[in-house]
Amino acid sequence: MSKNVLIIQGHPDGESEHFGHGLANAYAMGAGEAGHKIERIEVAQLDFPLVRSQDDWHSEAVPADIRSAQNLISWADHLAIFYPLWLGTMPALFKGFLEQVLRPGFAMDVSETSSFPKKLLKDKSARIVVTMGMPSLFYRLFYQSHSVKNLERNILKFCGITPVKTTYIGGIESDSGHARWLDKIKDLGVGE
Prior knowledge:
The chain has helices at residues 19-33, 54-58, 64-75, 92-101, 136-142, 146-156, 178-191, and strands at residues 4-9, 37-42, 78-84, 108-109, 118-119, 125-131, 164-169. With 192 residues, the protein is α/β, with parallel strands linked by helices.
């Protein structure tokens, strides 16, 4: 069954290609071979300000690039999110993108009197692919995948996106495993 797959590349460097871009391309290739429709968001190519206040977050004045990203997220059945781990978490630009795009009225309805907002992005799934210099097992055991769990539980699932699956790719400074990972990520694109 064909799905609408949105690839979100969260690497903040828009000037050059990184291993994460190759992973996103491999995922797109696999998804395309499986007959899925594919769109992309390159966060580094978007023009948007950071959210600096609650008024900014609730404002109806949504930047044009963010409105386009919201339209693509609405279209998608599945989100494939790629980003590098920087200082133990997602890059600031990617976090700023999420704060802009997942606003009240789009990702959640805060108008009801319930203490928990209504989730507006149900019926969507996600795959997070996070790359890092350290061994991924060390990140998962010692750091307990803190930032990735935050993205999964406190951001995506909070908006209704579930299930969320995660792939950790560590030791990326060494080229020794790159080809193997590209093949694995392509297979994930085929299977989701």
